[in-house]
Structures are given as C-alpha cells and as structure tokens.
Amino acid sequence: MQLTSRELRQKYNEFAPKYDLLEGVPELLGVWRLRRSLLAKLSGRVLEVAAGTGKNFRYHPSGCKIIAVDLSLEMLKIARRRSLRLHRHIPFAVMDAESLAFPARSFDTVVSSLTLCTFPDPVAALREMVRVCRADGRILLLEHGRSDREWLGRWQDRRTDRHAEYLGCHWNREPLDLVRQAGLRVLANRRIFLGIFHEIEAVPAP
To answer: Does the predicted TM-score (pTM) go above 0.90?
Structure first.
C-alpha cells in the first residue's frame, strides 16, 4: 500500500501534535547520536527536506544558512516553534520533496532524515535532492530500512503493508539501493541497531 502525497499530507497534518512522541522510540535507540554526528557535516547553504517537527535543528552547526521544507503545514508549525526556542532563524516552506521549487545547484548541503521510507517515489525525491545540490556539495541522509539480519528483515517484510497504513512508512525499503538508483555516489555509510538505521553521506555522481 502506497499513500499519495495528498493522503500523506492529511495524515501528517492530523498526527503532527503526537509525532514527537512517536519519534521518541528511535531516539531512545540512539538515533540522536546519528543526528549529532551526521549533521555536524552540514556546511554553507543547507536545504532540509521533509524537516518534520525540526528534530534536527539542535544539531545544526552555527554559521549554516538553513531552509526547511515539508509536505505538512502542521508539522512545520511545530518546527517553527522549535526553531524559535533554539534561537534559530530558519525560513520554512510547504513543499513536496518530489518537486522542489528551487533552481538547480542551489545548495551546498541537502539533508533529510527518516524520510525515504515514506516518500511515494523515494528515487524521484532523491533525484530532486541531487538536482538542487551543487556538483561539489554533499547529501546527508539519516534513514531506516530493512534490517541486514535476515530473520528480522523477513519479519519486516511480512508486516510492511500493515505498518504503512498508519503514516505511510515502508520500513523494509533499502536506503542504500535507493540512493544508488537516484545517481548518488556513497562516500560513507554507518548502520546501527541490528542494521536498521543508516547514516549516509553521498555526493552527486559525476
């Protein structure tokens, strides 16, 4: 089952007030450490795609110029409040990751976290990230997907349709495969928690 962008927007608008509670589980599993180490690599003009409620904001290095976009206005309202508490001046825009309204080569770094599982067409979204990233820029991804422990991966496979009904999360996608299909070259990838969570640093392929 794959939700459309319109359906996803409606679901996330409705669920926005509870979203941080849901994300509390992966945070307890150590995702915050991945956020901290990955986002330390941000530099220059930065686009955060599918920024959600702004959980990454506290880890943004000072000096970066951040623009944050998301499909859901209600999620961005929470992100805006978080940015104000952190004294971060971040422009926000409602935008579909698969059709980014920015010129090509606009950003030094593009970052997204826990999103490839949900995009209706994750390869299209990644290609948009490539398009708006400078040729010498970086694309940083914090993702989760199918475990590399086969017993757990099979369990995810059996339950993926039911799980996706909730918020559109297909938890058995293969982030590295999607990244390569989109035309990125992977510089580094680190996996934790039974091979489910990925910290990926990539560049547009020449």
So the answer is: yes
